Amino acid sequence: MVLLKVKFDQKKRVKLAQGLWLMNWLSVLAGIIVFSLGLFLKIELRKRSEVMNNAESHFVPNSLIGVGVLSCVFNSLAGKICYDALDPAKFARWRPWLKPYLAVCILFNVTLFLVALCCFLLRGSLESTLAHGLRSGMKYYRDTDTPGRCFMKRTIDMLQIEFQCCGNNGFRDWFEIQWISNRYLDFSSKEVKDRIKSNVDGRYLVDGVPFSCCNPSSPRPCIQYQLTNNSAHYSYDHQTEELNLWLRGCRDALLGYYGSLMSSMGIVTLLVWLFEVAITVGLRYLHTALESVSNPEDPECESEGWLLEKSVPETWKAFLESLKKLGKGNQVEAEGADAGQAAEAG
């Protein structure tokens, strides 16, 4: 049973071919947009690669770039096919390739849909990447004299200022690491010695944060040292008073930024996918309408176009049988090759 059969005359076939030609070139522009979005996301991730040291975070932008390029290639080719469909002589050379081309288009549509889903589903992977990268970056914050790490202080400071955040999960993360370089510590001072001795790992830990955690909107001058010592500051209570620091952690800030970017790109990619599906359906109707022309010498005659030649279950069954035949054919070829090698060895 033919699925979704539609009758076409010459005028309808011409309109369908012209409409598909226009849609394909619009889809080329859509592919350029997807490519540009992937490139933009990749650049944004590269900017903060020091705190995102995981290659998995680049899977989404690389996929967007790839499907954007493929969209431009496939739709340019489809535009040419639709243009030549208006001329029976030119269309004849495309006729043997249309079925394989439609199969490739279906595979591309599936890939595009999966890439769109990845834009929404890889948030968890991004979160773990950010958590690990930020912890490493904060640990190397003090290594301003170490080659390869001397830039980390500036990176973290600029990150906290730009995204108005402090620490990994919050400002208290800075209490657990030594973020002041030994170069700037007076080891002859009793206070410094006592702090280092009081720590099992011999680190100089303070209840303070870098200057980049300070909120310039606060009316009070920034308090970045002795944050938990109420007696060290006038009219100050760290438990009740709202601190003049950024309270949001940088992991949440970055996750919100990149998450919103990826969600927006996922929505755009889904819209492009719907457009590509519509083009594939139109190409299928154009293909079957031109194939079913009863009299090729009479371009005015009517023809029928359909989406599937059989019902969905029958089509799926035929597809599985073709896969089985292909597998058996490969197996027979392999056995024949083994028998030939055995004969030569004998």
What Rg do the Cα atoms give? 32 Å
Strand % is under 5%
Largest sheet: 2 strands, antiparallel
Q: What characteristic shape results from the CA principal axes?
A: elongated
User: What is the number of helical segments per DSSP (H or I, 4+ residues)?
Assistant: 9
Order of helices and strands: EHHHHHHHHEH
Number of strands: 2
Judged by helices, strands and strand pairing, the structural class is: mainly alpha
Q: Which blocks of ≥5 consecutive residues have pLDDT under 50?
A: none
What order do the strands of the largest sheet run in, or round the barrel if closed?
Answer: 1-2
Give a description of the structure.
This protein is mostly helical and 346 residues long. 59% of the residues lie in helices and 2% in strands. It contains 9 helices and 2 strands; from the N terminus they run E-H-H-H-H-H-H-H-H-E-H. The protein has helices at 10-47, 59-84, 88-91, 98-121, 123-139, 152-163, 190-197, 250-291, 312-345, and strands at residues 6-8, 303-305. Strands 1-2 form a two-stranded antiparallel ribbon. The longest helix is centred in the last third of the chain and has 42 residues, at 250-291. The chain is elongated, with a radius of gyration of 32 Å. The mean pLDDT is 81.
